[in-house]
Amino acid sequence: MLEVLYFAWVRERIGEPRERIETTAATVADLVDELRGREGRYALAFSDLAALRVAIDQELADWDSPIEGAREVAFFPPMTGG
Amino acid sequence: MLEVLYFAWVRERIGEPRERIETTAATVADLVDELRGREGRYALAFSDLAALRVAIDQELADWDSPIEGAREVAFFPPMTGG
Amino acid sequence: MRVRVQCEPFDLAAELEGFGAEGDVGAQVTFTGIVRATGGLTRMEIEHYPGMTARAIEKIATEAVSRWALDDCLVVHRYGTLAPGDQIMMVATASRHRAAAFEAAEFLMDYLKSRAPFWKKEYGADGAAWVEARDEDEDALSRW
Amino acid sequence: MRVRVQCEPFDLAAELEGFGAEGDVGAQVTFTGIVRATGGLTRMEIEHYPGMTARAIEKIATEAVSRWALDDCLVVHRYGTLAPGDQIMMVATASRHRAAAFEAAEFLMDYLKSRAPFWKKEYGADGAAWVEARDEDEDALSRW
Questions:
Q1: Chain C contact for A74, CB < 8 A?
Q2: Is C24 on the interface with D (CB under 8 A)?
Q3: What does R_g of chain B's alpha carbons equal in angstroms?
Q4: Model pTM?
Q5: Which domains does chain B have, with CATH numbers?
């Protein structure tokens, strides 16, 4: 089971802050494809990957990063701290 | 009468913080020449002009600045504020 | 080095109590970020990623301490609901020399801006909008 | 804008009370200079040029305020006898944006270093010596 987290407008578009999913996706990109195929709200949230960032187990990662063994994958827009 | 002020090691070499002098010097450089001619302690204090700065009426000035009408001329080493 | 992520306000003076006291510190720099009332903003909501935030900031602060041989380094960042005039966050750096203290503080700010998992939403007369990251903020990282 | 030259210690927190309160300030930077114990220093004497000091600093601060459109600017500089760990001086800048607040604070420091009429004498185990201005300090002015 993989914990998938959403923040900021990604969270608002998906409609929930986190969910546990069963997946066989090998990379983040595969996971995104899988999520996109679910429902319109996911397709909308993931429509422009250039506007998104991803973290695997709380470290920034890339779209082609492998997610095997990961406990947690988070999607969010570019950060605006400070 | 011109008020001449000395700060930091210039003051220590001259031996006093200020004095009033009667001068006909036209520029700062003329004034320095006049002071140098007085006594050894002045010659010592003004031996290296590159290590000195001058202010006329509390504004930084140059060696060839005219001092006509000035009330106060100050000599000191480069500043070390901050 | 101290990093804190909190909802509560902070007090700059209290945070600086004893800051850098252990080193031979000659220069101390602080930066405080404050909510601006620009464009009729009435409040700001800051969301963060609890599991990741403190760790991400610690990583940035550790990098700053080693690159500039800082004697001390502090980051406090708030989340939750803030009003115009409220303090958002602060950094402080302590070093022997002023150039190091200034550079390290600017480095911290540049990285916190784009690499610490916070997202700001602004609420005003015209509704609400997420603050967008600007290209300049990402570009700023390349100077370090 | 506020400039003060004094013998007494100052309190950073008290100085920042209401600082920048009138503008739409998003960023506040402070710098504090502290006496270091380097080389067995036991005390520092700071001499200044009373008639010129405040005016020279005001000129520098006025330049900073206009170049970076600061909402506020503060300089406090001490003279007299200081011990290791004592605060020597502080600057604070308030601006809409962080780059301006940082740059203006660095500009102030660079100019105070070489253009404000203060002279430091260090006393230690090996006697006393006037702090010499460094070429880098003069060179630093050319970046502005």
A1: yes
A2: yes
A3: 12
A4: 0.95
A5: 2-76 (3.10.20.30)
